[in-house]
# Entry
Amino acid sequence: MIRAVILIGAVALAVVFYQSAFGKPARLRYRLTVLIETPYGPATGSAVQEIELRTPSTSMMPIDGGRSKQTGDALLLRVDGKNYFMPLTTCASLVDDAIRSNKVEPAEARFQGNNAETLRVFARSKGRAVIEDGARWMKLPSRSIWLTRFADERDFRTSQSFRLGDPPFAWSLRSVTVETVDEPITRQTIERLPWLKTLTAAEVKAAPRYNGYTIGEIKVLSDLFKGK
# Structure
């Protein structure tokens, strides 16, 4: 009995310590919409995703750099009849920058000094944030906008990743919009790449193309990826 009481007390202290160290989790469900300029004309894509963040209250790290969990699929863009997937990590970076911008409505939804509280306030205020001058903004050296496509969407070994602005993909980001929503998470990527739910890390590593990076390209396309 005494041991049970001690164990319960230890667990309770651990929970209190964890919450004091990392704060209470903050959760934001949002619709991310991006507009990209390409030689084939403008391309737009939208996805409903969710991020849960637990990070020290003094942290100033980007939301994708703290203790975070992303739920959802990569944002899908269709250009010249081909599908391009914007990874969850890139999406989180865009959300982070958007909610820190000066074009956030309402005013009370703006950056609060730490990421967890910013997410809470942004969600509670039904916030909306916009980056309009995307082409100028993405020139900052601290940011890379990645996209992934598959020469054959039935075969993960045909994945190709590239950054906006790198030859031959001289595309530019025009705008980013983040809106708080209460809608189901979209699954456009899983619909097109259903094998993400069954593919294992061992299968990826056993593939001839495996070079240590393929698994990194794939696991950020959906939280439903089995092999992560």
